[in-house]
Amino acid sequence: MNILLTGSGGFIGQHLQKHLLKRYNLITPRSKDLNLLDESAVNNFFGKNKIDFIIHSAAYGVQKSLDANHENVAVPNIKMFENLAKHVSKNCPMIVFGSGAEYDKSRPLIYVSESEFGKRIPTDSYGYSKYVISKKIENMDYVVNLRIFGIYGYGENSTRVTTCIIKD
Question: Is residue 105 within 8 Å of 124, Cβ to Cβ?
Fold first, then answer.
């Protein structure tokens, strides 16, 4: 089985790659090899490669930055998803890594239930992009949004709070 794994240089992607390489043929292009924002490049990639499954973990804005806005975080995240989603089918399903940020992180999420999704639209660019993508997935076949909350561990960016607090 040929699995396209996007975001293989990121925290989640690196861990998935280590685990999945043992059992599957992974295709893990980096952004310099495949620009997911370029629709024709993505189309050409799928034309040249037999892809049986897509795992989409690439994202802009995961790390907070002062210049994060909808133009440089939300728009690219949504565009990458849309360019990949055009190639989803029964024979090529996709898992997308969502985020707890879809629930609007302007308040503590510890007691937020799944049923509250959509009651508050995130205002930060990253959360907003994940929210929009999640809403699009609701109307799609063969795409699953796997929402993850508070993930951390070995190899995580050293500036994240959990890494600073919890030492090896």
Answer: yes
Looking at per-residue confidence, does 162 or 23 come out higher? Answer: 23
pTM of this structure: 0.86
Cα-only R_g, the chain: 16
> pLDDT tens digits, residue range 37-58?
999 999 999 999 999 999 999 9
Assigned token pair, 66 = 């002062």
Q: What is the CATH number of domain 2-165?
A: 3.40.50.720
Q: What is the DSSP letter of 118?
A: T
Which DSSP helix (H) or strand (E) runs through 3? Answer: strand 2-6
Domain-wise residue ranges, the chain: 2-165
Q: How far apart are the first and last CA of the chain?
A: 36
Reported as half-sphere exposure (CB side, CA atoms, 13 A), residue 165 has a value of 4
